[in-house]
Amino acid sequence: MLDGGVLSIAPYALLSVAAATTAVLFAVAVGIGVRGKHMLVGSAAMALLSLWFAGIAITAGPSPAIRRTDAADGLRWLALITSVLWLLWIFGYTKTMVNLRR
Fold first, then answer.
1. Would you state the torsion angle of the CA atoms of residues 78, 76, 81, 86, taken in this order, to the nearest 10 degrees?
2. Quick one: the chain helix, strand, coil %, rounded to 5?
3. Residue 38: phi, psi to the nearest 5?
């Protein structure tokens, strides 16, 4: 059926598409006024997550286009920046849900 190369790349490729789609939907939601501008931080985080998944897919499989050891530092930095943006987005999103009355 499917060889090891396809099975090693497919999940990451699908996750990359899903994260990219989420980034676009977040941005569209801000553009049409359904969500606040804090969602743009989430959109950036999802876009970077999409790139990270694409990088993992490119370096996956028995004969990858790029060896993972060659791309490891870049992938780690991308993951770090993505996680910081994601945490900022969670904080901003949570802040919009909580109304403190004084």
1. 100
2. 75, 0, 25
3. -60, -20
pTM, whole model, 2 decimals? 0.86
List the domain boundaries for the chain.
4-97
Two tokens, residue 52: 């990270």
Residue in the block written with tokens 């989420």? 22
Token couple for 43 = 């959109």
Please choose, from the candidates 32, 31, 30, the residue with its C-alpha nearest in 3D space to the C-alpha of residue 89.
30
User: Can you say whether the dihedral through the CA atoms of 63, 69, 75, 76 is positive or negative?
Assistant: positive
**What tens digit of pLDDT does each residue of 69-102 get?**
999 999 999 999 999 999 999 999 998 888 767 7
| Residue linked to tokens 């849900």 | 97
